[in-house]
Amino acid sequence: MFALFVFFCGIMMPISTYADTIITPDQALVDGETVVSPAGVFELGFFSPGSTPENRYLGIWYKKISHGTVVWVANRDSPVKGNSGRLILNPNGTLILIDGNNRTVWSANSSRALKNAATRLSDRGNLVVFDVAGTGDDRSFGWQSFDYPSDTLLQGMKLGKNLVTGKEWFISSWKSAEDPSTGEYVNRLNSDGYTQAFVMKGSEIEFSTGPWNGRSFTSSVASRPNTYYTYKLVSTSDEIYFSYDLIKNMSVLTRLVIMPNGQVQHLTWIERTQNWIVYLNVQVDNCDRYGLCGPYATCNIDNSPPCGCLEGFRPKFTKQWNEADWSGGCVRNNPVGCGKEDGFRTLSGIKMPDSRKTWYSTTVNLKECEKMCLQNCSCTAYTVLDVRDGSGCLMYIDELIDMRELSQNDQPLYVRMAASDIAADKRQKKQRVMAISIALSAVIGFLLLCFLVWCGLHRRRSKRDLYDDEEMECPMFDLATVSAATHNFSNNNMVGEGGFGAVYKGKLAEGKEIAVKRLSRQSLQGKQELQNEMALISKLQHRNLVKLLGCCLEGEEKMLIYEFMPNNSLDHFIFDPERRGVLTWQRRFDIAMGISRGLLYLHQDSRLRIVHRDLKASNILLDNNFRPKISDFGLAKIMDLNQTEGKTRLVIGTYGYMSPEYAVDGKFSVKSDVFSLGVLILELVSGKKNQTFRHSDHLHNLLGHAWILWNKGRAVELIDEYLEKSSYVEFEVVRCIQVGLLCVQKAPDDRPTVASVVSMMGNKDVRLPQPKQPGFFVERSSNSTGSTLVSENELSLTIMEAR
Fold this sequence. Notes:
Blueprint: E1 22-23, E2 28-30, E3 35-36, E4 42-47, E5 55-62, E6 70-73, E7 80-81, E8 86-89, E9 95-98, E10 104-108, E11 117-121, E12 127-131, E13 143-144, E14 152-153, E15 159-162, E16 168-169, E17 171-176, E18 179-190, E19 196-201, E20 204-208, E21 229-235, E22 239-246, E23 254-258, E24 264-270, E25 275-281, E26 297-299, E27 307-309, E28 313-315, H1 318-322, E29 330-332, E30 343-347, E31 358-361, H2 366-375, E32 381-383, E33 393-396, E34 403-404, E35 413-417, H3 419-448, H4 450-463, H5 469-472, H6 479-485, E36 494-497, E37 501-507, E38 513-519, H7 527-537, E39 548-554, E40 557-563, H8 571-574, H9 585-605, E41 609-611, E42 620-622, E43 628-630, E44 637-639, E45 646-647, E46 650-653, H10 660-665, E47 667-668, H11 670-686, H12 702-711, H13 730-743, H14 754-762, E48 796-799
């Protein structure tokens, strides 16, 4: 994850240290000297970012972090040329930065007259001008850097506005990774209507957090409960601001940063790995683009298309909507009136709409809020103001825009609907009540038959051996249906065969094509793996995971029924000289991104944290549009959200894709899957299989060959010769090779997370670290034998015995 912020590594820092933590009028801070906070947490001095050593900036950075992470820049738009800069403090409390020609480059005027001015850098990273003769903790400070943030929000800093002076606190991006001047993006608090925060590019809103709900903002990540940080919104007659602090360990280094591309990330320093990790990305995916779906519509990134109208609404411009232009949003099917005949439909699990045109009250309860909304003809919806106790009233008086589906948000939104819509809801509710009544009557009769059917159920369960129905949650197919669909498992219908058994193509009576995975009696993967796959895949839903349609467990037959993938598996194309020409560079890149997103869902976004343990080319299926779908969860393991790694005595996987720590010691983690992902990325680039790769100059596998080329500056030679040079961008290819090598580094802690991989591959502005030596960088003996070009679904099996 540190790769996202490694550009700070190039910052040139001074080598000497100023003796005291205080600057007084009779002292000057010159270039080459620094001021250090009392506990040595932060350092103030001059630095040069990246490749522009002639430009010098006055800044604050972390003293204890060797990477020199800058958190504040004074003269970000006015660099000092050369090493002639000096910071001086006037007796009246004005900080002045001058260059070698005694020209003022930057200054900071004190807000009050100070008798005995001095400057101190605090351990929170705040540069303060104060009166030595003053009293109290602030010693009558006249100026502080916390009031003038750069791109970073530290603990205790404010994002908001002083309502008395008009002073606004906001963070703005650097122009680039090596240029700290003011960039295009700004993160600021907006108090029009009810408070929310925006990321803006110029005057355009790029992202909205949604309104404050008493606990957090309602955007996709901020709404998740956490035990690390406390967020607060302070609103008084003098000021309104947002800030955050650590709940427990105040010594943890953490920061909120707006990147040059507008992405806002909350980062935490991990001392053990000496890396910054991303605690959360504020903008998660395309659904976080402000107003993507227009008014009265919600966005769901797992849907295609992602935008959908609210119930009772339809697209405003049907033609544009069908052409993927959703900005016009939706309109009502039935117009609302203005009175008691209207009603409300409850929406839950969504991000609250843009709240700039709202009315709110902390004293009005929810019942009164509903009544007031009905009486106001402009009111379109209402909700509670504070989700902690369900108090207050937030009333929308305009179109509802910028909503997305969020499973974590339990704040309801009550949307105004026409009387006819409410009447239809009541009819449906009445029908449901009748259906439930009939069902209950049937249940009573069914209970009388329970004893008679128990024996039959018991016999059926004995045939299923130890399979747990409750864990499987798998729709059942009968054997006759599956047999008919596959023409009695005809060889002509067989589309593949692996360690599990044969896979057949079938067509159900209604015309739906299916893939049937049939466990063979000789299979190395037995009942436990079958049950594992059914239990896991039935609970997972993602566009880059294969969809399980059902199971068949009759007699000795044990089968899984999946959606059919017309383009077979990835190894069917990438390792075949005649077929891999179909995989253009863009398709290969999209496949790599799709696999990464599917893996990110397994590791981070699903309700279970899952380590796949057998990620390889033959387990990546391709639909008719060559969209990748991860399959075969027979070896997958569920891990606790707080668990970092697991260990097994039985190592099962595929050589060439297994990470060193798993193959040798039986240790597996999300970083084991990252290693396999790196192998897949390098195979996609090269069109060569890692395990069977051979080269005339050495006996290394594909990883070793890629490492050798990288160190020689010839990484582009790795690309598949079947690709025309005009069909790919060399920079993009080399970047993918670098990401692949980062993933296959020997030490798990050196490898990035999948979230970092997605960010690094999808964002060309992110600078990447240099990879270290890959795992298994050992030459094979000259008589080593390889398998065929087509990736077999073979399993390697190792029993780990105690020493």
